[in-house]
Amino acid sequence: MNIYQPYTYLIGWSDLNTWYYGVRYSKYAKPSDLWVTYFTSSKYVKLFRKKHGEPNVIQIRKIFDDKHKAILWEQKVLKRIDVQHDKRFLNVKNDTTKTPIIGPNSGSFKKGHKTWNKNLDIKSLLDEEARKKFGRKFTDEEKHNLSVKNKKIFGTIERREQARQKTLDQFNDSVKKEYHKSKCVSHKDKIWINDGLKNKRIKEKDLINFSGWMRGRLIPKEKIELMINNRVTLRDKTTGRFLKHDKKGD
User: Fold this and answer.
1) Where do the H-state alpha helices sit in 58-139?
2) Rounded-to-integer distance, Cα 224 and Cα 236, Å
3) Are 98 and 66 contacting, i.e. CB atoms less than 8 angstroms apart?
């Protein structure tokens, strides 16, 4: 039986005096998962862990019966420490998750404050080989071609207005809206699977009927190499997927 228990936690590298305070509140949350199947949602923690190894401090700080209480407690602790100005912490701001609004007719959540990056440079956490793939500079020829293309499309007020109107017409097209809606609904609760040669999209509950198939969408090797070389975000060499950098508290 899966017991839902949101919680806050602290991990740290005591010899480096580097810490991270977070909250886990997804529907799968339970304290026994910390650093077993759940390793925080912070990209800075993941990169720091890759460079310096596993933390020697892993603590459950507080357990809750409600995710809103857990989130509010995390906010309280982060603000009390003022982590966004404390270079000992890998947290980049005092509001790292969605903050619940408690009050009538207030909606469910409000967005946190603008990120304070504390000069935490992701590149500094990467090894030399990985750093080479972190971003790509455009050649002078590519820059020129982009400039010519943009000037051709948006070079005058009339052209900019035409492009704007075209976008508005597409957005307000009821037929396209209904088509998009039907496509979204048809793939709801579906996952990609592959057998090493081809892809298929099925409902997760039907996965048991596909013996020998694996989760995930198969991407050709040459396309993976192209994505790795041309995209800023790092990708897994085997699957072509983005290296998972969850944005917000989970």
Assistant:
1) 67-81, 128-132
2) 8
3) no
User: What span, in angstroms and rounded, lies between the C-alpha atoms of 191 and 212?
Assistant: 16
Question: pTM surpassing 0.85?
Answer: no
The residues, ordered by sequence, that sit 6+ positions from 170 with a Cβ below 8 Å of its Cβ are: 176
Whether residue 7 contacts residue 65, with contact meaning beta carbons closer than 8 Å, is answered with no
Residue 8 amino acid letter: T
Which own/partner contact pairs does 144-153 have at CB distance under 8 Å and 24+ positions apart? none
Phi, psi of 217 (to 5 degrees): -100, 130
Nearest Cα neighbor of 247 from 20, 44, 9 is: 44
Measured CA to CA, the distance from residue 205 to residue 217 in angstroms comes to 17
pLDDT in tens, 74-130: 988 998 998 888 889 998 888 765 555 444 433 434 444 334 455 555 666 666 666
> How is residue 38 written in tokens?
């759940």
Q: Indicate the residue type of 208.
A: I
Contact 239, 216 (CB under 8 A): yes
**Cα–Cα distance for residue pair 190/210, rounded to 1 Å:** 14
Whose tokens are 């933390």? That residue is: 55
Strands (E), the chain: 7-13, 18-24, 57-63, 99-100, 109-110, 190-194, 199-203, 214-215
d(CA 188, CA 15) in angstroms, rounded, equals: 47
What does residue 78 show for φ and ψ, rounded to 5 degrees? -60, -40
